[in-house]
Amino acid sequence: MxxxxxxxxxxxxxxxxxxxxRHLPDSSVTDFDPEDATPADYAVVWAPPxxxxxxxxxxxxxxxxxxxxxxxxxxxxxxxxxxxVRLGDAGMSVQMAEYVCHAVIRHSRELDRFEADLRCHExxxxxxxxxxxxxxxxxxxxxxxxxxxxxxxxxEFPVFGWSLGAHAIPGVQCFCGSxxxxxxxxxxxxxxxxxxxxxxxxxILNRQNLSQLKDDAYLINVARGAHLVDQDLVDLLAExxxxxxxxxxxxxxPLPAGHPFWGDARIVMTPHIAARTLREDSLAQIxxxxxxxxxxxxxxxxxxxxxxx
Length: 309
Known about the structure:
alpha/beta, Rossmann fold, five-stranded parallel beta sheet, 10 helices, 12 strands
C-alpha cells in the first residue's frame, strides 16, 4: 500500500488528508507525527519542520503545496536525491491575473483618487486614461506570468515581458536574460513582479533597477517579499521617482507594526492573498501525479534544484 504523509503548518490537515484518501483510496494518508517511524512513499508539504526529513528517509517524491518552492529548497536537510514537485496552475493563475489587472486598472484610471474625492464628498472628473501611456512589464513568464501578461494584453495595454529564458507570447514584447533586463525596464511604467525567488532574483527590485523605469512608475509585487529592497522603495517614493506600489508579499509576514509601509497612502497592501492554492484542484493534481509515478510514468512540475524552480 502506498503511504503518504501530510505536513503543512498553515492549514487544518483534515480536509487535505480526507481529500487525498478520496482520490487515492488504495493509499494510506496520515498527518505527520514525528514519533511515527513508519516509512512513507510521498510527502505533501508546506513549510515542513526539518524533523520531517530526519524521520522520512525513504521518500520517492515531495509535493509542495504551492508554486513557489524557495522556502523548501533552502532547507539544509532536504534530501538531494528526492524529486521536489511544485504545483502547476491549481487555480492560481486566474486569481493572479484578476489581482494584477485590478491593480493596474485602479492605478492607471486613478480610481484611488476618485475614491478619495468621493470620501470627501467631492464630485470631480479627471482626464480619460490613455492606455498607451501605461506600458506594463511582467517579470517572470512561467505559467502564471504568461496568464497575467495575456490578460493585460486583452485590455490593450502595451505589455512587455522579461524572464531568464526566451519566450514568445502573442501581444507581448518579450525580453530575456541579463542583457534584456535594462531595455525591458526602460520600456515600462507599471512593473509587475511574478518571478520565482532564487539567488539570482533576490532583491531584484532595488534602486538600480527601479530607477530605470519610466517616470511616475508604479510597482506591483505579487511574487515574494525578498524580491523587494524595502528601503529603496521608500526612498524612491519620497524622491518622486515612483508614484506608488501595490504589494501582496513582504520580507516579514505579518508586516511589523513599525514598518514604514504602514500609513503610506501611496502603498496599497494586501496580506499575501493575490492567489491562494485551491484545495480540490491541488488534490486532483497531486493524486494524478502520484498515480503516474507509481506506474513508472514521467510527470511535470519537477523542480530544477540548480535554477530554484
